[in-house]
Amino acid sequence: MARYTGPKHHLCKAEGIALCGSVKCPVIRKNAGLPGQHGSKRRRKQSEYGMQLREKQKVKRMYGVLERQFQKYYTIASRAKKATGEVLLQILETRLDNVIFRLKLAKSRAQARQLVSHGHVLVDNKVVTIPSFNVKLGSVISLSAQAANLDFIKKLIEETKNEILPSWLSKKVTVGKISKVPKREDITEEIDERLIVEYYSR
């Protein structure tokens, strides 16, 4: 499966949730339904398998992860001693592109992925160009001097300076740190990880 490159908000409308992370996403508007002229009429009762599949697809698309990689994350999580669903979400949350997004150094995970791929992100003072890189507890994440001087980054920093970060992160201007392992309650999106575990446990 290749990475989705179609209309930015098409998947958001299909899932009924702002997968892109943007506050201007169309699904936030009242009565936003499925894509198409008759989208609002296409909602029908789903089977148990259908609900499990939709939840898996939703989370996969939310974090911008391909099927094979998502399944790999699940396998790792299922071997952990803690609850599989929570460990899976911890793995997804500590991806470098997601950490940049959570630190409000990018407007979306897609933009964060681009910053990482273009060599604008450092982890413990070393350039990392792999968006899926899992950041460890205590690691320091920062933007390069070049990225920090970009106009859209400066504007974003100014616009979000008073916004509250997730409790597992700390930040000073363009330098952030993972101060603790993210817990389930730190993730505010509507995710039912139980359905994902049930999907892979069939």
UniProtKB/TrEMBL annotation:
Keywords: Ribonucleoprotein, Ribosomal protein, RNA-binding, rRNA-binding. It comes from the Bacteria. One of its GO terms (molecular function) is structural constituent of ribosome. InterPro entries: Ribosomal_uS4, Ribosomal_uS4_bac-type, Ribosomal_uS4_CS, Ribosomal_uS4_N, S4_RNA-bd, S4_RNA-bd_sf. Residues 94-158 form the RNA-binding S4 domain. The keyword Ribonucleoprotein applies. GO terms for cellular component: small ribosomal subunit. Pfam families: Ribosomal_S4, S4. Residues 3-93 form the Small ribosomal subunit protein uS4 N-terminal domain. The keyword Ribonucleoprotein applies. One of its GO terms (biological process) is translation. PROSITE patterns: RIBOSOMAL_S4, S4. Part of the 30S ribosomal subunit. Contacts protein S5. The interaction surface between S4 and S5 is involved in control of translational fidelity. Belongs to the universal ribosomal protein uS4 family. With S5 and S12 plays an important role in translational accuracy. One of the primary rRNA binding proteins, it binds directly to 16S rRNA where it nucleates assembly of the body of the 30S subunit. This is Small ribosomal subunit protein uS4. It comes from Candidatus Curtissbacteria bacterium RIFCSPLOWO2_01_FULL_37_9. The gene is rpsD.
